[in-house]
Amino acid sequence: AGGPVKKGKPASAGGVGNTGTKAKKGTEVKEIFEPELSIEMCEEKASAVLPEVCIQQLDSGNWKERLACMEEFQKAVELMDKTEMPCQALVRMLAKKPGWKETNFQVMQIKLHIVALVAQKGTFSKTSAQIVLDGLVDKIGDVKCGSNAKEALTAIAEACQLPWTAEQVMSMAFSQKNPKNQSETLNWLSNAIKEFGFTGLNVKAFISNVRTALAATNPAVRTSAITLLGVMFLYVGPPLRMFFEDEKPALLSQIDAEFEKMQGQTPTAATRGNTRHTIGNDDGEEGEEQEDSGNDVVDLLPRADI
Prior knowledge:
By secondary structure, the protein is mostly helical. It has twelve helices and two strands. The longest helix has 18 residues.
């Protein structure tokens, strides 16, 4: 999770790179490159703003000491001013051994909550996000920690934009073989689209991932995929069905039933996103204007010369 992050476009499911820089008309989102810091530099920056116990007991063999460490860490972040918060250094400390392999769920719950706090309160970059996203996806299906992981993902989507975050998360979820994580990632995304809206999302990449999910042997993954299609239908409309006409009849009837439930409904106004200035690991670019409608899905259909 803490591997090097290359400058430029991040690898993603649909390869759209800078989609996350686009914003609705009237808003402007600016991306500023943040270099990856060495672990030594991160430790130095974190030590300057955290109590000593937070650095010393991160990898203690005693879970109670690790819990006390995380509690102190959380208090420190809650009191930190945005301008003095070294986001990358803080999340790098959270990712240090045992990192996302933490075995005590109480310690892990606080750790995930701290990720959300740092993303909400600080100037949180894609460089920082890359350090934690693998760990969050790995915990999203956990019974005790899943809601905390989703909270952190939503905070990162707000800081780094949903289109970029969604593609990273979907790509990670479907490159691993854990069906619970896959279904919960799809559920998180369905909810996130309702909160953030559909602007800027790469429909083509989503359709590819949803097709993979519909072919899953696990019924929960298929159900979550159909739910996500229902949410997408609110924004895209009937043309969405054309991409799934090759599915088995039983599955297609479930998709049709989901679309039928959505007929006549209109999506609620977005309550998150497009209001924050973000810092990313891409070169600085002015936000581009993008139409509100997701109906450009028709442009993705193969054309026949008539």
